[in-house]
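Quick check before the chapter quiz. The format below is the same one you will see on the exam, so make sure you can read both the input and the output lines.
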Amino acid sequence: MKSSTTASFWRAYRALTPEIQTEARKAYQLWTVNPRHPSLHFERKGDYWSVRITRGWRALAREHEGTFYWFWIGSHDEYQRLLKS
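Here is the expected output.
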């Protein structure tokens, strides 16, 4: 699958702990090989696509013409708030 990241994604990524950054890289590598892998919980959430980084962390993308634009990464609590707004 094709993907790209936004400046807002990288700002949020840099704010993560090194451990979560490592998990995010692992999840992304898995997503590029098998986006439907059960551990990723890759699914559509309204206008967004969500992927599980770890139990407590998620990333969000928007899809446009077959490319996923990753714009956010953060805690599950923040994720829930974003989806409700």
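If your answer matched, good. Helices lie at 7-14, 18-33, 76-84.
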